[in-house]
Amino acid sequence: MISAKLDKLTYVLKAHTENEHKIHFHRADSFAVKLKAEMNAIETIQKAEGDASSIISRAIAFNAEPDLERFRLKLNLIQKIFSTKSIYVVDKTMMRPQDTIFLNMLSN
User: Fold this and answer.
1) Cα 50 to the chain's mean position, in Å?
2) pLDDT digit string (tens) for 58-71?
3) What angle do CA 30, 33, 35 make, to 5 degrees?
4) In this structure, are residues 103 and 88 in contact, taking their beta carbons and an 8 Å threshold?
5) Domain boundary assignment for the chain
């Protein structure tokens, strides 16, 4: 009889302990999820503010010097296009008249 009462008390205490553990674990987990969401919101806002600042500065530059800003935009576009291509620059002043250059233009 005493053993059964002790076993029952042991199981009840174990159940309460597990329940408390799960409650604290899930609270900590939800807090982590909340912090991650807040961090993502802050990053999104900062990115949007940076993009807006960039657009404003480009508009100011364009209004001040339209030709220069057009040149910069074209240069940025050319850099984006050529960043994926292989470019070979050959200075013919470094070559002798009998020199010949062969480039393999086939991509593997």
Assistant:
1) 14
2) 899 889 999 998 89
3) 110
4) yes
5) 2-94
